Request: fold
Amino acid sequence: MAVTPETKLEFLVKEVVDALGTLNVDIDTVNVNTDGIETLLTAISGKLPASLGAKTIAAAMAVSIASDQNVPVVGPTAHDAAATANPLLIAAVGRTQALPTATTANDVTYLNCDRHGRLRITGPSFLIASSDNTPITTATDTTVLAAPGAGNHYRIYYIHTSNSNSATVDTSWRDGASGARVHRATLPQYAQMGHNIKPGAWDLTSNTALVLNTNAAASVHYTVEYEIIAD
Reply:
């Protein structure tokens, strides 16, 4: 555009952002000659980032993007080559057999897969409690697992009971001493009953014991598979 000394330029500048924050400029009408144009542009350019194409934004800086604007995105490499059209990838981390370092509570964790992209799901490592050849011989409530401590609860996957006595006995399991009797079994002599609660599992109340109830004198053995889970 040809510029003469008498050219009248109208500027309506809403915001000029530099690395220090926001500079508000409101210039409705500016009459300048050719020297003034150079002076004005120099002053404004001093307030702009050195590179408008790749600006690092501080984590605390709020960004508002108009609905009619596009933001260029460069995605990570996929198998040693850029993914087509630079999408934001939702992907797992390819690993060998070595387990990643455990995170602390409430941290965000990565999904893990093998190096072919197949998702790896590791099942729980069960703990086991048993009567250890010492049967329950009376009608009573027996604490099989003591309360695990504040902030934790038991997740029960499998329970098994058997009776080696000639008397028939009813067994049931309780979430704490006053919990409802569930997973009942009636066991005549040499009978046994297993409850495979997987995959849903049975989560007990926080910091509550697992209790086995027997309603008669007999010889009841038990086995429990479980985890201790943070609330």
Summary: The chain has three domains: 8-45, 72-122, 127-230.
